Amino acid sequence: MDEIIKAISSDGFVSVSAISSRELTERAREIHGTTPVVTAALGRTLAAASLIGSALKKPEASLTVNINGGGPAGTIIAVSDYEGNVRGYVQNPIVELPRKASGKLDVGAAVGNNGMLSVIKDFREKEPYSGAVKLVSGEIAEDFAAYFAVSEQIPTACAFGVLVDRDRSVLAAGGYIVQLLPGAPGKAATLVEKNTAETGAVTSVLNGGGAQTLLESVMNGFSPRILERGNVEYRCSCSRERFLNAVSSLDKRELDDMRAKGEPIEVKCQFCNAVYTFAPSELDRTDN
Questions:
Q1: Are residues 146 and 32 part of one domain?
Q2: To the nearest 10°, the Cα dihedral for 136, 204, 82, 225?
Q3: What is the CATH number of the domain that holds 156?
Q4: 56 close to 50: Cβ distance less than 8 angstroms
Q5: Alpha-carbon gap, residue 162 to 183, rounded angstroms
Q6: Integer Cα distance of 99 and 205 in angstroms
Q7: 39 pLDDT exceeds 70?
Q8: Are 133 and 219 part of one and the same domain?
Q9: What integer pLDDT is reported at residue 284 of this predicted model?
Q10: How far apart are CA 230 and CA 16, in angstroms?
Q11: Closest by CA position to 6, among listed 67, 57, 72
C-alpha cells in the first residue's frame, strides 16, 4: 500500500516527510485517462498535497492545491484530508508532448510556468489559510519549494516523481519534503544538499524500495527518528446527498426549468467519475 513516513533528525534541526504513492497515482490515471506527461504532473501534485495535508492534524481539516501555469494540461487540483488521503482533477488529461533531450517527460511544458500555485488550508474555523506563489518552472517540486520559502518562510528541499511504464501504467511514484527547523546550523543545510543530490531521482529509489528507503537516503548522517507512519490512498468524499444539496442550491429559475422538462438530472463527480441521477421531484425536498 501507499505510505507516508515522517521523521526528525537526532539533533532536532531537520524534519522529513516521505511518500510512496504508486497506487493512488495509478488510480488517478485510471479515473482520468491521463497521458504519461499528465500522469506525471497530476501524480507529483497528489504526492505533494498528501504530504502537506497529512500535517493538518485536525480530522475536519482539508487542504486544496490549485496549479495553473497556462500550459496545455490546464488547471490541476488536488485535495487532501488530514491523514493524507487525496483526490485530484486535471482540466485536460490528454496532452502529448515531445520528451526532453534527457528522455524525461516534459512536465514543465505540460503545466506551464506562467501562472500560480495556491495552497488553501481549511480547518473549518473562521477563514481558511491561503498562500500562493508564482510558478517557477511548472515541474511541481521547484514550485512547492518556492511556496514554502515565500508563503511559510521555511527553508525546504523537495522532490516528487512519477515513473510511467510503456503501457502507460505507473511503475513508481512519490517524493519527499525536507525542512530546516529554527536554529539549524549551516552544516545541516550542507548535508541536506549533499544527500538530496546523491539520492537523485526519487522514482529510482522508490522503484527498488519504498518511502522508508527514500527517507533514509535523504536523511543519511542525521540518525533520523521515525515520528509516525501511515497508509494513504486515492479517496473521494463525494456522495449522493452532497450533490443533491449542490444541485438544489442552484438559481430558482434553473431549478424550475429542470422540473418543467421532467427529465432525470445527471451529475458527475470530477474527482472520481461517479455519476448521480436525481428525479426532478427530489429537488423539492430542499428548495425553498
A1: yes
A2: -110
A3: 3.55.30.10
A4: no
A5: 34
A6: 22
A7: yes
A8: yes
A9: 64
A10: 14
A11: 57
Smallest Cα–Cα separation from 172: which of 143, 137, 199, 211?
211
H helix runs in the chain, sequence order: 22-32, 36-53, 107-111, 141-151, 186-199, 202-208, 211-218, 240-248, 252-261
pLDDT at 57: 86
Q: In angstroms, rounded to a whole number, what is the distance separating the alpha carbons of residues 144 and 132?
A: 10
**Cα 17 to Cα 210, 258, 277, distances in angstroms:** 13, 49, 41
Q: Are residues 60 and 141 in the same domain?
A: yes
Q: What is the pLDDT of residues 225-281, one digit of tens each?
A: 999 999 999 999 999 988 888 887 777 787 777 777 777 888 899 999 999 998 877
- Cα–Cα distance, 96 to 204 (Å, whole number): 24
AA identity, residue 233? E
Residue 165, amino acid: D
Distance, in Å, from the CA atom of 31 to the CA atom of 170, rounded to the nearest integer, reads 13
Phi and psi at residue 239, in whole multiples of 5°? -155, 165
Alpha-carbon span 108 to 183, nearest angstrom: 34
**How far apart (Å, rounded) are the C-alpha atoms in residues 224 and 5?**
11
Percent of residues, the chain, with pLDDT higher than 90: 82
Last residue of a domain, one of 212, 231, 250: 231
